[in-house]
Structure formats: C-alpha cells, structure tokens
Amino acid sequence: MRTELLELNPDTDMQVSADSGVLDIHAERRVQHKIADRSEFH
C-alpha cells in the first residue's frame, strides 16, 4: 500500500499498525501560530 500525506513527517506525525488483518493509519498535523507581541498605549 502506498499513500501520500502532504506536509506530514512520517517519523513524528504518523502511527501505522496492523492487527488481525486490519491496517490502521493514524496521522495528525500539528500547527503552531506565533502571535506577535503587541504594545498598546492608552
């Protein structure tokens, strides 16, 4: 079987297992957003 999952690192973002003839593929994409520091004066 071959699959293409864009922007996923197979070493850290995926788990593949097979048990009793069932193939299980779990993938999770984690995105971090950095919010720029803001300074507000009143």
Task: Supply the key terms.
42 residues, mainly beta, Hsp20/alpha crystallin family protein, 0% helix
Could you explain the architecture of this structure?
This is Hsp20/alpha crystallin family protein. There is one protein chain. This protein has 42 residues and is mainly β. It is built from no helices and two strands. It has strands at residues 14-19, 22-27. Strands 1-2 form a two-stranded antiparallel ribbon. The mean pLDDT is 81.
Topology:
Layout: E1 14-19, E2 22-27
Antiparallel strand pairs: 1-2
Organism: Catellatospora chokoriensis
Protein name: Hsp20/alpha crystallin family protein
Helical stretch tally: 0
Rg of Cα set: 19 Å
Oligomer: single chain
Mean pLDDT value: 81
Low-pLDDT runs of 5+ residues are: none
Q: Hey, roughly how much beta strand do the residues contain?
A: 25-35%
Structural class: mainly beta
Biggest beta-sheet profile? 2 strands, antiparallel
* Ends distance: 60 Å
Give a quick rundown of the structure.
The chain is mostly beta strands and 42 residues long.
